[in-house]
Amino acid sequence: MNKAELIASMADKSELTKKDAEAALNGFIKSVEEALENGEKVQLVGFGTFEVRQRKAREGRNPRDPEEVIQIPASNAPVFKAGKSLKETVNKK
């Protein structure tokens, strides 16, 4: 599902116009980005948690020249951990 399909689905399920659904989705995305940028977690009980994790600096291999060792710098990575309810929904058979 791409963003346009998600907006259409949200509009259908919430009885909003597509324009209002797009504004709501964009607002949600922006709010999550700002919270993560400020070092905060975003927890949606049952759905999941968005957070930032620190990645340590490490050595890697150059894919074009596997014998060449390169240094990969430390970085921050956004992470989503699915909540119990979402996991149960996905695992239903």
Automatic annotation (TrEMBL):
Assigned keywords, A-Z: DNA condensation, DNA-binding
Listed GO CC annotations: cytosol; DnaA-HU complex; HU-DNA complex
SUPFAM superfamilies: IHF-like DNA-binding proteins
Cited InterPro entries: Hist_DNA-bd, IHF-like_DNA-bd_dom_sf
Superkingdom of this protein's organism: Bacteria
Key word Cell wall biogenesis/degradation present: no
A Pfam entry, by short name: Bac_DNA_binding
GO BP, one annotated term: DNA replication initiation
Keyword DNA-binding among record annotations: yes
Any one Gene Ontology molecular-function term assigned to this protein's record: DNA binding
Transmembrane segments: none
Family under the similarity heading: Belongs to the bacterial histone-like protein family.
Protein name: DNA-binding protein HU
Originating species: Tissierella creatinophila DSM 6911
The organism's taxonomic lineage, starting at the top: Bacteria, Bacillati, Bacillota, Tissierellia, Tissierellales
Gene that this sequence comes from: hup
